[in-house]
Specification:
The chain contains 7 helices and 7 strands, in the order H-E-E-H-H-E-H-H-E-E-H-E-E-H. It is of the alpha+beta class. Helix 4 packs antiparallel against helix 5.
């Protein structure tokens, strides 16, 4: 029971740290957080759109974040590593923040949703799914969905290939939640797998095993009992 409580407390602490960093580095474009335990302490890998804003002048901003992570959240000897997002349009968290910011600036939710879908798909994503929920046009809550391309909702492809981000837009009528899911452009789905026959496989084996030892084909033999 004690181990379960420690497990829950550790996860709550990580969620609180993620919310804190999302707020602190929002101007830099928060793209994700990974926390790893090492023998030397805690390694915090922060992914942002503009790493320079996180590091700050003479590294002062990242020093302040390191002190806050250690004192406020109790992580032992934290070491912050800042990585730059290769393509912000393919990062679900960054796109969710941008979409929420567009709604706060007064964009119509349909215009903002379709614009985000076009940006994501034009950047090479295999698929995207955007959900905008809240008081969009009146006092009643409603949900609007925008999707294009391949989308997976469950199973191994959902866990391995779908990147998910969430942000909140604060408007006069209330709070609007924005969820963005993007399928990685390098993902290989089960439907993309081609099973070759014996003839095709035999034709490409020399290329696959060039310079390597080819696998030995197992030959089944009949078991002969003694006396037969």
């Amino acid at each position: 029971m004690a181990s379960e409580r420690r497990f829950v407390a550790e996860n709550v602490r990580r969620v609180l740290l993620k919310e804190y960093l999302m707020k602190e580095v929002s101007r830099a474009g928060f793209g994700g957080l990974d926390i790893q335990r090492t023998p030397m302490g805690t390694r915090v890998i922060l992914t942002t759109e503009r790493p320079g804003l996180v590091i700050g002048r003479k590294g002062q901003t990242i020093k302040n974040l390191t002190v806050a992570i250690e004192e406020q959240f109790g992580f032992e000897n934290p070491q912050i590593e800042v990585n730059e997002v290769a393509n912000p349009n393919l990062n679900a968290q960054i796109m969710a923040e941008k979409l929420a910011f567009s709604l706060e600036r007064g964009w119509h939710f349909r215009r903002a949703g379709h614009s985000a879908v076009r940006r994501i798909m034009d950047s090479g994503a295999k698929g995207c799914h955007i959900i905008i929920a809240g008081k969009l046009t009146g006092q009643r809550h409603r949900t609007e969905k925008f999707k294009e391309g391949n989308i997976k909702f469950c199973g191994e492809p959902k866990a391995n290939f779908m990147d998910k981000g969430y942000a909140v837009a604060k408007l006069k009528m209330g709070v609007i939640g924005v969820t963005v899911e993007i399928m990685d452009k390098n993902s290989k789905l089960p439907a993309d797998t081609t099973v070759l026959g014996k003839t095709e496989a035999a034709a490409i084996l020399p290329e696959l095993f060039a310079g390597k030892e080819a696998p030995v084909e197992e030959v089944s033999a009949e078991v002969v009992e003694e006396g037969q």
